[in-house]
Amino acid sequence: QIQVVESGGGVVQSGGSLRLSCNFSGSAVSTRSIAWYRQISANPRGLVAGITPRGLTNYADAVKGRFTISRDNSKNMVSLQMDDLKPEDSAVYYCNYYSGSFYPNYDYWGQGTQVTVSS
User: Residue 49 forms beta bridges with which residues?
Assistant: First the structure.
C-alpha cells in the first residue's frame, strides 16, 4: 500500500515563496508520473503541475512561470517550488500519481499541506 506525505506548507505574504515536498513510501515511484494538485475550499482537486519519470513537466496556466516541479527518484520524492505566490494560490496541496487529467480520480490521498497567502 503506497503512502504519501506532503510537507512544506505555511503562511506567506503575497510575492513570497514556499517549497513543498512529497515523500512516497510503500512503492518506488521512479517509473510513474507524479503531480501536485490543489483543493480550494469545497472545489474539486485540480492539477497544479505534473512530471513524468524522465522529467517532462506540465503546468496549469495559473502557475506557469511561477511554480517549478522537480523529482528525486533516488529519494522517492517530488518537490514543488512556488515563487511569486498570490492570494489565489491559497489551498491545500496534495501529490499523487498523474495520468494527464486535470481532475484526478484516485481513491487514496495523503493529508495534504495547507498553503495560505496573505495579501
Answer: 36, 59
30, 43, 75, 87 from 91: Cα distances, Å: 27, 10, 26, 9
pLDDT by residue (tens digit) across 90-116?
999 999 999 999 999 998 999 999 999
Amino acid at 71: R
* Cell numbers for 48: 497544479
Q: How many CA atoms lie within 13 A of 97 on its CB side?
A: 13
What's the maximum distance between 2 C-alpha atoms anywhere in the chain?
Answer: 40
- Amino acid present at 6: E
Number of H helices, E strands in the chain: 0, 10
Which one, of 44, 27, 62, 50, lies nearest residue 96 by Cα?
50
SS3 (DSSP) at 107: coil
Three-state DSSP string of 1-54: CCEEEEECCEEEECCCCEEEEEEEECCCCCCCCEEEEEECCCCCCEEEEEECCC
